[in-house]
Design a protein that fits this description.
The protein has ten helices and two strands. With 255 residues, the chain is mainly alpha-helical.
Length: 255
């Protein structure tokens, strides 16, 4: 049981509840407290991983900061004492591993139990945590940037595929109705000053159409506007997929 305090006043109680195996009438063997590994609290598993006996690890978890000597207990536990205690234990495990690396520990479990009980200092833990957080943040940013680049490539590829499909449809339309080309050229010459500048009057509409991208892009735009129904299926298919990619890009770039 943990006491939740507001200053010196106790304003709540928090109970740690565990599953217990149902006992038959005749019990021949001691049942384990956590019959399945998934039932075991994370802090218990972490203590077991560094050599603490199961029952000792469970006792430490159950007692929480009550296991720590009263004069050594941290002053600020935050709003979640259980999470704070788990982080406290990880700090001591980190200290143990550092000491083991330098060969300064003879009794692993004894040292760790004392470190937890007496709150051995470990200032390097905070720096390590900050460094790990920065590394995780960098990894997340890099992963997000990779996702953005992939989406942009997909977007560009889809636009190119759509534009190729539109151009093929324009070519087919001109073959079916050659008079449309002349009609579109006349309209563009009358309405668009830029098209008038790049259009070569000494060449036929067909020759102009096949001459430069600038010319055929204007002509194809005019063909699309003139015969919208012939391009409706392309707009419906590609525009939907492009909208989905645009939305996903916006989500990644907004983070």
């Amino acid at each position: 049981m943990d006491y939740q305090r507001e200053g010196r006043k106790v304003n709540g109680l928090k109970f740690k509840i565990r599953r217990e195996a149902l006992l038959s009438e005749i019990q021949h063997e001691q049942k384990t407290l956590f019959p399945e590994l998934d039932d075991m609290p994370l802090v218990v598993r972490e203590l077991k991983d560094v050599g603490i006996a199961t029952q000792d690890a469970i006792e430490i978890w159950q007692l929480g900061f009550s296991y720590v000597h009263e004069k050594a207990q941290p002053e600020k536990l935050g709003e979640n004492p259980e999470a704070a205690f788990a982080e406290y234990v990880r700090e001591k495990i980190h200290l143990l591993k550092r000491r083991l690396a330098t060969g300064k520990v003879e009794n692993t479990t004894g040292f760790l139990l004392q470190a937890i009980k007496h709150n051995y200092a470990n200032p390097e833990f905070v720096e390590t945590q900050k460094r790990q957080e920065m590394e995780e943040q960098n990894k997340t940013r890099q992963q997000r940037q990779r996702e953005i680049e992939v989406l942009k490539r997909q977007q560009d590829a889809l636009k190119n595929t759509r534009d190729d499909a539109i151009r093929q449809r324009c070519k087919a339309l001109i073959e079916e109705a050659p008079e449309l080309l002349g009609l579109v050229v006349e309209t563009q010459l009358a309405e668009n000053a830029t098209f008038k500048q790049i259009y070569n009057q000494a060449m036929t509409p067909a020759e102009n159409y096949h001459r430069t991208m600038g010319v055929w892009s204007f002509i194809e735009f005019g063909l699309e506007r003139h015969s919208l129904d012939r391009f409706a299926d392309l707009y419906t298919g590609y525009d939907h997929d492009l909208a989905v990619l645009k939305e996903r890009l916006a989500l990644f770039e907004a983070v």
